[in-house]
């Protein structure tokens, strides 16, 4: 009988139950509303800051940084990764360096960025670029190295070489791997950006991370929780709207679906 | 039938003279091919047959220009073979179709690399060859939507469409089931008779070699050498279960076993 219900019914029901319980728990006065706001308080903050434009402004600032930083990181990472795959000694130097730097949590770049760039937009961008770049370099290197040699041989006998071979064979063949590298780079960029925004508050550049930190300073727990929810939703949406459809299309068109 | 001396190079498409190829592998140096001297005549279907590891794929890579000889020379007409070129296209064992392109685009890939054609001529030629292999209605399909036999047909069309002087085939039927294979033998022979191509086929299947080749060159392994050359004077189209074909095939098999027994 349960199988007759549409699939979202049960999760929705459970979510409402949890939120309702939480609301009731806070309202019953057992905890301090300041430290543990009810869902309705968070929702109220959300509505209020949406109307005042504060939330949209902060989201926009954050998205702009994320997109610009990610674009720079990916634009540098793709050719560098290709170079690593193509040239042995670049792989042995830059490739190994990338492997090391990728394991470094990107929040570790923040002190360095502050000293190099000062409390400026560039510092934030730098951290995002560092978060993206190495994951993309490694993914591109790996997927180019894994292109089946048979494709290359077939293309070469048909007269393809140089740029034609790269653009028409190697990159299309490596694309699924490159894309999952981009997705990983995006996730790293998103994390590093939040870290940077919490540490670096720039006049005129008040992003979601800064809003979160401001919530702490003002002891506005509803704001802290609200921003955390927004950060989560933005991350999910990026995946849902951007990466998943491209990945799905790629897999379907090549018959890679399980 | 039996041994035959090399033909005069006058009507030879490919000329191999004392070709030797070695590889330095993990288990030391391997001589894949030793002192191969062979002519492929213009318009001939040459089948090279031998057990696995006797250097068949190596020979084809050398002819394609994907590898280089250590000793000896290979010429196409008067030109030495040094690099891959559109005059020698290769059909591989399997899955060399590009999965990011549909059937028509795969066939167009080689044609688009020929600068002297207009786009309309390329399309016309691609469609002509797709029809020739019986896949005119599949041009929008992706490779993964086709059966193994259909994929090899597309690969055949892709290799034929740029109109190469020589078609090189590296065991293109070995991954297919017997029925599909038999069908493709028919298709290939029909195309060969219609288009008068020079074809070099390598295979480990002796019957297949006898069924398709005007001549069958038997290779022996360790190191890869030409052991014997057989003329096949059977009318086309040939069928695999033709008794005359079976008789010749067992003659080739006997020659191979007597060599391996030594
Ligand atoms: N790239 C290579 N590196 C090292 N050894 C190779 C390489 N290619 C082929 N060989 C060796 O050369 C011999 C002939 O191989 P191959 O031409 O593939 O044989 P066949 O196609 O007849 O099965 C084998 O012993 C094989 O191990
Ligand atoms: Mg082989």
Secondary structure layout plus pairing:
The complex is a heterodimer of chains A (258) and B (262).
Chain A: H1 9-27, H2 39-52, H3 54-86, H4 88-103, H5 109-117, H6 121-145, H7 149-157, H8 162-199, H9 208-217, H10 221-253
Helix pairs in contact in A: 2-10, 3-4, 3-6, 3-8, 3-9, 4-6, 5-6, 6-8, 7-8, 8-9, 8-10, 9-10
Chain B: E1 12-25, E2 28-41, E3 45-49, H1 56-64, E4 71-76, E5 79-80, E6 88-91, H2 103-112, H3 119-132, H4 148-160, E7 166-170, H5 178-195, E8 198-203, H6 206-212, E9 215-220, E10 225-231, H7 243-261
Parallel strand pairs in B: 3-8, 3-9, 6-7, 7-8
Antiparallel strand pairs in B: 1-2, 1-4, 4-5, 9-10
Helix pairs in contact in B: 2-3, 2-4, 3-4, 6-7
The complex binds adenosine-5'-diphosphate and magnesium ion.
Describe the protein in words.
The complex is a heterodimer of chains A (258) and B (262). Chain A has 258 residues and is an all-alpha fold. Chain A folds into 2 domains: 1-31; 37-253, MetI-like fold, CATH 1.10.3720. Helix content of chain A is 80%, strand content 0%. Chain A is built from 10 helices and no strands. Chain A has helices at 9-27, 39-52, 54-86, 88-103, 109-117, 121-145, 149-157, 162-199, 208-217, 221-253. With 262 residues, chain B is α/β, with parallel strands linked by helices. Chain B folds into 2 domains: 4-87 and 165-261, Rossmann fold (3-Layer(aba) Sandwich); 98-163, no CATH class. Chain B is built from 7 helices and 10 strands. In chain B, the strands form 2 sheets. Chain B has a 6-stranded mixed β-sheet, with helices on both faces. Chain B has a 4-stranded antiparallel β-sheet with strand order 2-1-4-5, with helices on one face. Chains A and B meet through helix 7 and helix 8 of A and strand 6 of B. Adenosine-5'-diphosphate (ADP) is lined by residues 23, 25, 30, 32, 52-58 of chain B.
